[in-house]
Write a structure and sequence with these properties.
With 281 residues, the chain is α/β, with parallel strands linked by helices. It has helices at 15-27, 38-48, 64-73, 91-99, 112-129, 142-152, 167-174, 176-197, 218-235, 272-280, and strands at residues 7-11, 31-35, 52-55, 82-86, 104-107, 158-165, 203-208, 211-216, 256-263. The strands form two sheets. Strands 2-1-3-4-5 form a five-stranded parallel β-sheet, sandwiched between helices. Helix 4 links the parallel strand 4 (82-86) and strand 5 (104-107).
Length: 281
């Protein structure tokens, strides 16, 4: 199973500090994006959706407070943890930062080990708070892992992993609203297939931003897989504007679907990580 690296955005106009933070957190296993002014930082945050943002307040254009306001004002980025890292020590500055919904406020000079722990803790709190996906309203994170963990210790189950491909390319071309429409539509199609051919105990969850997981019974696995695959393959092209539909020459970059299946007979699985690895392979 490929480990998903979390992404940190550093918005800092001091190039030495930005380079130091980037190098340090990369060694710690994170992906790092950097911006040297507020406008760039706000733009990156909307396009890339990092897992956490570290913001300086004094920036050459808009200040860190305004960057935080923009992050919180956008429904796609409003849940991103924010840590202010600044020279401003006044109580009023700290209150203003925390009042904007920042998770933490650290003053310079700072202890890099302390910053690392605060970043780790903020990311953990964020992950624990994500119980349902804001776009599809499907259970994700802890709730999904709990349901999959039940499979590790039981029999008579089957899984489908439904993966949308090239959604990032689609989003870049047509925007977040259009890509969200795709995700919601796929969720509804999976629900419809379950109503028609599934069982009363079936579970649908958000496995990742572009993947869905269906927990069902082995007896209906093949039928559900066929229904979902057929409907998605027939439907995905209609999410494009009329002028862009049917452009087969760009098929390698167009929306697609891959469906993996797994059942209890291929176990036993030692733990949740082993089950996920088998499901993704």
């Amino acid at each position: 199973m490929v480990e998903v690296r979390q992404t940190i955005l550093v918005v800092e106009d001091d190039l030495d500090v930005a380079d130091m933070l980037s190098a340090y957190f990369r060694v710690q296993g994170y992906d790092v994006l950097t911006a040297n002014d507020g406008e760039e930082g706000a733009e990156i945050c909307q396009k890339k959706l990092p897992d956490l943002a570290i913001l300086d307040i004094r920036l050459p254009d808009i200040d860190g407070y305004e960057v935080a306001r923009r992050i919180r004002a956008n429904r796609h980025s409003r849940e991103i943890p924010i840590i202010f890292l600044t020279e401003r020590r006044a109580r009023q500055d700290r209150l203003q930062g925390l009042g904007l919904g920042a998770d933490d406020y650290i003053t310079k000079p700072f202890d890099i080990q302390e910053l690392r722990l605060r970043v780790r803790n903020s990311l953990r709190r964020s992950a624990q708070g994500n119980l349902t996906n804001p776009v599809t309203n499907l259970p994700e994170g802890v709730l999904m892992d709990e349901r999959l963990s039940e499979c590790v210790h039981s029999e008579g189950w089957a899984l489908l992993l439904i993966s949308l491909t090239n959604l990032d390319v689609f989003r870049e071309a047509y925007g977040f609203v259009a890509s969200d429409d795709v995700l919601r539509a796929v969720s509804l199609m999976v629900h419809s297939a379950v109503r028609e051919a599934g069982t009363s105990t079936d579970f649908i969850g958000q496995y990742s931003p572009t993947q869905f997981v269906l927990v069902t019974q082995p007896i209906v696995l093949a039928e559900l897989k066929q229904r979902i695959s057929t409907r998605l393959e027939q439907t995905l092209d209609f999410f494009y504007p009329i002028k862009d539909r049917g452009q087969k020459e760009y098929s390698g970059k167009r929306l697609g679907v891959i469906i993996n299946d797994l059942d209890a007979e291929r176990g036993p699985f030692k733990n949740l990580k082993a089950l996920k690895s088998a499901l993704e392979s």
